[in-house]
Design brief:
mainly beta; three-stranded antiparallel β-sheet; elongated; single chain
């Protein structure tokens, strides 16, 4: 990669350092709700955590690029 950057004269503004992290905005719950004296008690949305991935990028020149948020889902315009 260093050879290509040197030989092709890639500008420093195109060198990027990025990192990603998971952001949880709705934690799963361990709460229960049932009538008194019921024989079985189920939890409420125990497996339904809601989260997305945040991607932070900085160029070699120190410019912070816009935050990218990656959600699950597919649309006609998204790539496979």
């Amino acid at each position: 990669m260093a050879f290509t950057i040197k030989e092709e004269d890639v500008p420093a503004s195109l060198y990027l350092n990025l990192d990603q992290t998971q952001i949880i905005y709705a934690q799963g719950s361990s709460l229960t709700w049932t009538k008194r004296d019921a024989k079985q008690v189920s939890t409420i949305s125990e497996d339904e955590k809601r989260a997305f991935t945040a991607v932070v990028s900085v160029s070699c020149l120190g410019k912070l690029l816009p935050l990218q948020a990656v959600y699950q889902g597919v649309t006609m315009k998204s790539c496979p």
